[in-house]
Amino acid sequence: MKLSFPGVVPDELLWPLLACLPDHVLWLDTECRVLGSNKSLNPAQSRPLLGRCVLDLLDPLERAKAESAYDEVRTTGKPNSFQARYNDPSGQSSLFETFIVPLGAPGDISGFITNSRDVTGASQRDRNLELAVQATGMGIWRFDVRTGAVEWNAEMHRIMGREVPIAPDTYLAEAVHPEDKEQAVAQTRRSFEEGVFGTISHRIVRPDGAVRWVMLVGNMERGAGGALIAAHGVTID
User: Fold this and answer.
1) Rounded distance between C-alpha atoms, residue 1 and residue 14, angstroms
2) What is the pTM of this model?
3) Per-residue pLDDT tens for 70-109?
4) N or C: which end of the chain has fewer CB within 10 A?
């Protein structure tokens, strides 16, 4: 299959460009069979790929996830992505993140271009960090000032005794102990006005009625122009 992008990359430069990419680029037919690759060998199984269905290379337990991603691209004509594990002949498993781009217009897809990146190491580092955070007993939170979105890690949910994260205004109104509310409101307002969060300690009342002392250590995230983007930090029970 001739792969060409007229007016974007000269044909004589396209193959050297693809060959030097660290990721694994494949172009597939509509049934996900490999028509070409920027690598001569499959990175996970070390054997020729041409003519093989990439879905057959996946861990069987994760094949349905990949099939769903390709089906969505066929239906919508829009790019999609998924993460799935590939098993090599020795039994080792590698986690790849794959981005799918359709060739053709919606309703008339002639194939796919995929870009797969080995994220096994990054995934393990994230898991190690998660385990380390769990060991410290710290709740991690982030409040996006622009959208109002709130993110909590699992430990933050445990500390607060809540299944759904709550925004700062709701936190101050519902979670802070009535005797500590005035001070907590003043400290929080000052943090947002001055752009320096610092350390805040007070009692909280959980939905089950339990009272706990917590210490919040946070920071303010600002954009290129100095505008406040988010507040984020940790809560220690």
Assistant:
1) 14
2) 0.48
3) 999 998 988 999 988 877 656 667 788 899 999 987 778 8
4) N
